[in-house]
User: Fold this.
Amino acid sequence: MTRVNLVKKDLINSVYMQIGFSKNISENLIDDFLMTIIENLRIEKKLKLSKFGTFSIRSKKSRIGRNPKTKERKTISNRDVVLFKASKEFKDLVNSKNDL
Amino acid sequence: MAIVKSKLLNQLKKSYPNFLKKDLDQVVSIVLNEIKQALKRGDRVELRGFGMFSTNIQKARISRNPKTGEKVNTPEKKTIHFKMAKEMFNKLNND
Assistant:
């Protein structure tokens, strides 16, 4: 089974081809965009991208976890995790059969 | 209030004062569009330092309307998942 991945390089290439920014600049722009998302998410806990989806933060409490192999007990400290909920348009697109 | 795309764009604009807002706008929409199209094709999207988007196939099943108890056929569909990268986790949890 071959698994195809879209990576940052592909995104850089698309920006380069479609807008004509140099690859260096394109990469910086994409990186900055992603970092801005993280930064805002950290502060505001919720971030919406229209037609794409919503990122939100859920705080998890600390709990006692176990290493299933060694049966060793450990506390997992409280942490923030990110949830992503795709928008309706996104879901519809992924599920549509025809090419848009 | 939640942050929306226009606010992100304004912040991005501040770091790139020499760029046209129109172009930054387009960069963002290209990025989001490429991610969408890749997931539509069934590919995974891996963005180092940010996270990974992937799809899963949910099999067709007979579900119920929870209100009426009536049986409903749910066709096979794809679900969208996002898993954040370690770097993102660390950024969110180290302060």
